[in-house]
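Today's session is about reading a structure prediction critically. Students often jump straight to the picture, but the first step is always the sequence itself: look for stretches that repeat, for charged clusters, for runs of hydrophobic residues. Only then move on to the predicted structure, which in these notes is written as discrete structure tokens rather than atom positions. Here is the chain we will use throughout the hour.
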Amino acid sequence: MIYITGDTHRRHDFAKLLSFADAHPELTKKDYMIVAGDFGGVLEAKTLEKDLRPYEELPFTVLFVDGNHENFDLLNAYPVEIWKGGKVHSIKPTVIHLMRGQVFEIEGKTFFTFGGATSADRYLRIEGLDWWPQELPTYEELDEGIANLKRYNNTVDYIVTHSCDERALWYPPLRGRGVKMETFPENRMLSLFEDTVQYGHWYFGHYHMDGDLTDKKTVLYQQIIRLL
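Below is the predicted structure for this chain, in token form.
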């Protein structure tokens, strides 16, 4: 089975996974939980093993796209491997980072992944301590995503990102958050995929809320959804 949820922020929003595991004792490491960015388990080298242990102890395998609150120096130090047709960082055997611009074939379904987002409060953070410029996707990653999607005729079952395209910012519930929804470079990048890719459903995190924007686009935070 494959499930998807929103940000976990290291252990700050981890409880939802633990509660879900307790409620589903039938799950095994052959089942997957996708985290739509801001995983946060790879944040500090000195506490890395301690931070990852709760994820390793879950009965299912955790897959995640990166968000804006990750230690990219630490994350990108892992060797790049190929898993299910796309590039990954194998953080642990059952904790896997799905890299940007990749298409994965998992249980007969195709998943296009494109992590990253802009930290709106980056000016209050310290580079290399709690903020990394690699949070913003590059045009090289964008080009790689375009090329990989072409191999699938620009058609996938699911898109999983951390942020969203520009158009999504105008839909409820995002528009009704009561704060100004600023457009960042990654929103414009993701708009390219909205305009060119045929997809079954698009899931993203980042905005700390749950809700359906359309019948094909969902923002996630605490909610956990079964995909198959």
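Discussion point for the tutorial: The domain at 2-226 is CATH 3.60.21 (Purple Acid Phosphatase; chain A, domain 2).
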